[in-house]
Specification:
single chain, 310 residues, alpha+beta, Trefoil (Acidic Fibroblast Growth Factor, subunit A), 8-stranded antiparallel β-sheet, two-stranded antiparallel sheet, 7 helices, elongated, Ricin_B-like_lectins, XRE family transcriptional regulator, transmembrane, membrane
């Protein structure tokens, strides 16, 4: 890795300058976007390379969790506090109106700062009747909070548009494992089912996330010998509830992807479109070869997945 010492985030005076400091840190690290994504995953962080590339091309203030994951991935974990402190100072200036922000982009955060700005700018207003102030400001803040809830991609249960096309689907707790084809560990079924295996070994089949309308998706597997199959929840047989790749994609299971509502951005629940249940790793097992299965939704760690471009 390159030399990442001596670079201070406190040199930045506004959002654009802060992003420029992040750009310099990336250059000094000598790491590619893919390498930064992989290093973040090893630390338990989510830092999609597409999101990071977008953040570093914008002049908006990135979200705190993006900044922290990025700094750790660059090998500066001991300085995360400094970067977050510098970011907070700039956010305060934006809220106070002393500096400007270019708005919100992927991985950027300006709506919360905008809410703070309303509070800052309302204080100098000299209303003599406090009851009138409360009557005006309470509905205003309620509207702001509601708007932020609707715009927040991590609102629990909100259906969002994840990365589509070629992707990897990884259990959130074990991001070095990917859903791929394998066999049920009981040996009860001769065909392939979806299991979790190390991503470095799971190069085939490739996973393709295909939009199917109405916030639904097909999860396709493309195998060089077997061709294309679509994951289907088994309704009968010895592996009932597990996912099998079927050649009949027309009648394959369609899935909703909804935000998990956790502190980790980018975590999804995968829910079959024809049921109220969720896909999870059986018994929340973290072992290689553990099967994916349809089960009652609990929001537990074994039911949260990362969908990444791949």
């Amino acid at each position: 890795m390159g030399n990442t010492g001596e670079l201070s985030p406190y040199e930045a005076q506004d959002a654009a300058g802060f992003v420029a400091s992040m750009q310099r840190l990336k250059v000094r690290s000598g790491l590619t976007y893919r390498e930064l994504e992989e290093r973040a995953a090893l630390s338990g962080d989510v830092l999609a390379r597409s999101t990071l590339a977008d953040v570093l091309q914008r002049s908006s203030l990135p979200r705190p969790e993006v900044v922290a994951a990025f700094v750790r991935a660059c090998g500066q974990g001991h300085r995360v506090g400094d970067w977050l402190d510098a970011r907070t100072r700039i956010a305060s200036r934006i809220a106070a109106g002393t500096v400007t922000s270019s708005g919100s982009e992927d991985g950027a955060e300006s709506p919360p700062d905008a809410a703070e700005a309303v509070g800052v700018r309302s204080r100098p207003t000299a209303f003599r009747t406090t009851g009138f102030v409360a009557a005006v400001m309470v509905p205003l803040f309620a509207l702001i909070a509601w708007g932020l809830l609707l715009d927040n991609p991590d609102t629990p249960g909100k259906r969002v548009v994840p990365a589509t096309g070629w992707v990897t689907i990884r259990p959130s707790r074990t991001p070095d494992l990917c859903l791929t084809d394998g066999r049920d560990r009981a040996g009860a079924y001769a065909n392939a089912v979806a299991v979790q295996l190390p991503c470095v070994q799971a190069t085939v089949p490739r996973t393709y996330l295909e939009p199917a309308g109405e916030d639904l998706y097909r999860i396709q597997w493309h195998h060089p010998q077997e061709g294309k199959g679509c994951l289907t929840v088994m309704s009968t047989g010895p592996v009932k509830g597990m996912l099998e790749p079927r050649n009949d994609c027309v009648h394959a299971t369609l899935f909703h992807l909804v935000t998990a509502g956790t502190r980790n951005a980018g975590e999804y629940l995968i829910r079959p479109g024809n049921s109220s249940r969720c896909i999870g790793i059986v018994d929340e097992d973290t072992a290689e070869g553990a099967e994916a299965v349809e089960e009652r939704c609990t929001g537990g760690a074994g039911q949260r997945f990362l969908v990444r471009e791949g």
